[in-house]
């Protein structure tokens, strides 16, 4: 039995393929260089003691016998839920401390980073051998069943399986993952993340209602998921005839067109056609803004100003309703774009956004074990 284990798992940026993962669709995320470190130490009682360096005055303690969904909330729910998701009965307690530099609530999957980081450490601490893809499944189980957010599997897969200098083409229906080179720096580009600091809470219901509408669209078409649609035009006109709710049609249109854009982006990346990648990002943003309606004024402003000041492409990333935008920017313009977005936010009376360049990084790993 290992007594102290340290692990690390990254947050993610999704290059393209938004709100497609719970529709059996395609996504193209990358793990980033920011993430969450976990330190797990064995205890000789049956208590789970949880600490976060970012919340120094709080220690959350749960008896293993009381570890059920709803027993804790806030940041500790992601830690406790990861332990709960382990496929074994624990015989003694643990002290678990997390420390992260991925911004919280910024649409960069700090939650998946916590879940994956805690799971990687705990799996080692209890002496299990579980493959990374399976750990991602346990992390998703934590998020869906313990925290209670009906997300897809993109974030946890990116956090566990990310690769340096790559995005992952993840086919959520076939469950296949293909790393696609994302060597934009060699071509003179950077991927700028603009955390708008506008509130972003998937738990608020906007995410769940989008998911429910997509499921209704699939049901109305008689398919298990929207991915099974083969003729987009026919499906959309059938939907318009069978429903009086225009949202059902527009939500489905976003998902169907977004899947096409993900595959086109993966192809353009392999052929190093970055202008085309940029155009696809812009179409994705417009579709998320107009058809899926998950953008917000701060995200639209970030995208608009980035494009006006020289970005090759820009879009919101993640679940939406706030959070972060990303911009594909010729390297020499990164500072100009950043300054212009910040100035416009100040002029609009909003909080100044946090901007940084994302580095596509490898996924979760053990750091120390003894
Ligand atoms: C959140 C969810 C993901 C995915 C995105 C939207 O990040 O956790 O599963 O659905 O939103 O693409």
Top keywords for this entry?
Ribosomal Protein S5, domain 2; 4-stranded antiparallel sheet; binds alpha-D-galactopyranose; alpha+beta; Alpha-Beta Plaits; 370 residues
Describe the 3D structure.
By secondary structure, the chain is of the alpha+beta class. It has two domains: 4-179, Ribosomal Protein S5, domain 2 (2-Layer Sandwich), CATH 3.30.230; 182-358, Alpha-Beta Plaits, CATH 3.30.70.890. It is 39% helix and 23% strand. The chain has ten helices and 13 strands. The chain has helices at 75-84, 110-125, 132-147, 154-161, 206-221, 232-242, 246-270, 274-290, 297-308, 334-347, and strands at 4-14, 26-27, 29-42, 47-52, 59-63, 94-100, 166-171, 176-181, 189-195, 313-317, 324-330, 354-357, 365-369. Strands 5-4-6-3-1-13 form a six-stranded mixed beta sheet. Helix 5 crosses helix 7 (246-270). It is globular, with a radius of gyration of 21 Å. The mean pLDDT is 96. It binds alpha-D-galactopyranose. The site of alpha-D-galactopyranose has 11 residues, from helix 4. Alpha-D-galactopyranose binds at residues 18-19, 21-22, 109, 151-152, 154-155, 318-319.
């Amino acid at each position: 039995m290992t007594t102290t284990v340290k692990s690390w798992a990254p947050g993610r940026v999704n290059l393209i393929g938004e709100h497609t993962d719970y529709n059996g669709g395609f996504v193209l995320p990358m793990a980033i260089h920011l993430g969450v470190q976990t330190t797990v130490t064995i205890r000789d009682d049956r208590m789970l003691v949880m600490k976060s360096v970012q919340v120094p005055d709080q220690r959350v303690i749960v008896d293993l016998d009381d570890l059920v969904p709803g027993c804790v909330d806030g940041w500790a729910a992601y830690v406790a839920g990861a332990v709960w998701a382990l496929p074994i009965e624990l015989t003694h307690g643990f002290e678990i401390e997390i420390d992260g530099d991925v911004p919280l609530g910024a649409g960069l999957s700090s939650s998946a980073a916590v879940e994956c980081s805690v799971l990687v450490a705990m799996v080692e601490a209890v002496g299990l051998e579980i493959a990374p893809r399976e750990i991602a499944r346990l992390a998703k189980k934590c998020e869906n069943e313990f925290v209670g957010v009906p997300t897809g599997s993109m974030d946890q897969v990116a956090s566990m399986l990310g690769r340096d200098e790559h995005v992952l083409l993840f086919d959520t229906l076939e469950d296949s993952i293909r790393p696609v080179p994302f060597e934009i720096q060699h071509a003179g580009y950077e991927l700028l993340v603009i955390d708008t600091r506008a509130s972003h809470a998937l738990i608020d219901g906007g995410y769940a209602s989008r998911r429910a509408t997509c499921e209704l669209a699939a049901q109305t078409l008689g398919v298990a998921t929207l991915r099974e649609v083969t003729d987009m035009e026919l499906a959309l006109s059938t939907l318009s005839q069978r429903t009086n709710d225009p949202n059902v049609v527009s939500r489905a249109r976003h998902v169907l067109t977004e899947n096409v854009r993900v595959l086109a982006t993966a192809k353009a990346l392999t052929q190093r056609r970055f202008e085309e990648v940029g155009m696809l990002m812009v179409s994705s943003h417009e579709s998320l803004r107009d058809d899926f309606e998950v953008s917000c004024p701060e995200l639209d402003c970030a995208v608009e100003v980035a494009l006006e000041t020289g970005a090759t492409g820009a879009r919101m990333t993640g679940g939406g309703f706030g959070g972060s935008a990303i911009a594909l920017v010729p390297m020499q313009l990164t500072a100009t774009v950043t300054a212009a977005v910040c100035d416009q936010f100040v002029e609009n009376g909003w909080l100044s956004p946090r901007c940084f360049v994302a580095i596509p990084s490898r996924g979760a790993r053990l750091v120390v074990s003894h």
